[in-house]
Design a protein that fits this description.
This protein is mainly α. The chain is built from 26 helices and no strands. Helix 1 (14-35) runs antiparallel to helix 2 (43-61), helix 4 (81-100) packs across helix 15 (301-314) and helix 7 runs antiparallel to helix 8 (159-176). The longest helix has 29 residues, at 194-222.
Amino acid sequence: MSRREPRPRRAPTLADALIPLIAMVVLIGGSLLIFGLGALDGPIQVALIASCLVAAVIALKNGYQWGDVQAAGQSAMGSITSAVFILLAVGALIGTWNLSGTIPTLVSYGLAVLSPSWFYAATAVICGIVAMSIGSSWTTAGTIGVGLVGIGAMLGVSPAITAGAVISGAYLGDKLSPLSETTILTAQMVKIDVMRHIRAQAWTSLPAFAIAVVVFLVLGLTTGGQAEPPAPTEVELEKLAEVFHITPWNLLPLVLLVVLSVRRVPAPMALFLSAVFAGITGAILQPQVFADFIGQTYLTFVGGIEATWQAMATGFSTSTGIADIDRLLSRGGMDSMMLTLWLIIGAVTFGALMDELGLISRITDPLIARAKSRGALYLTVFASAFGLNIVAGDQYIALVLPARTYRAEFAKRGLAPTNLSRLCADSGTVTSPLVPWNSCGAFMGSTLGVGTLLYLPFAFFNIFSPLLSLIYGFTGFKVEKAAPEDVEAAGPEDGETELESAGGGPESSVDP
């Protein structure tokens, strides 16, 4: 009996491409309607997995084999390997930084010097400086950002606005730092020098951040000054000093993290080493906290290892009698990131299926044909990048696909690649934390302890930056004309795939 030949593959129709998207919108919308903000605790994850199955059915209908669907899913898993390790390392780091007194020390010093009236603006600037130094929005939010959200809670200011300020500063650095993987990747995708890309981005990033800081300052002056902390600051400072030995030495794990990041140590390794180092310094500086955490009367060598290990696995917990301090410090651990990982796996798998089975290109190709003017082309690129953040759930897909899809079109119209690189970064990188099921939105919400939909209206930099890019596109301001060498570089080298021409794609260097 002869083996049955596989059916020929058919090109997807527009209906084929739209059906999985409609299914995702209906399922996610239904989960939000039924469960509210609690939808992120499982229902949205189920909706994304169900959407993956809808996309798989469309693929099978068009002649693909189940092995093709599996291969797309495997590529999705490969693309988030580094992100998974970053998430787990951040969970471990939050646990040991709380246990060792690093975060309590940051909060204590912050409460002593920061005022509610200018707290939001200071938060954005601090996070911007740190992110520019280390080139990672995730690391910035998972370290300094966590401490600033805790300070804000004790000062009585809005945690949602504080989270928006943290994210605004973190993504300024993610866009403008030459150490940032997204910045390097975007420049590679359009085949320009990194510094040329950064100079082009500055024309939208710096004005957008300046506007954001002014808005944060106004919000602080109009609302922060009337903040009423749930407990007097002096009481909280005394309680922190009573539980922990507050000393600058507690900040050594933060210093180590900065040094490792500047020296380009991979983010998962730098975060994990800082978490372990915090356990070592904490056992020396906070022996009673360690002993109490694991139920010992005094700390032994094995007890120090046990406390550090447990904090990395399941987080730190304490009961001080002040609710805000307990909420700030009783968190962390790798297991706290499991829901976020589930969310990212579902979202990125759905995006990979839509991309590799030809469903996304079926939607974007007609958009390119209809974008007759420069402004319309800019709007199309923005819609594609932001739409991919929603559909694919991953900022790297939202960067790579528009960059390689529209690169030739920009060259054809005589537009320099810097215009596309800036627009892709403004549309893909900074909008990623605004989507709850996107890997960046899920990470920020989980790490900062503030729901994505709550901080979204206050992530001013992430809103103003793409708006300025669109305004530039429609008005022609700072729109560069292509040089002859730019047109020659618009396509990949002969025999080289688009992803290979970008240096291996996001799978080879993922560090948000």
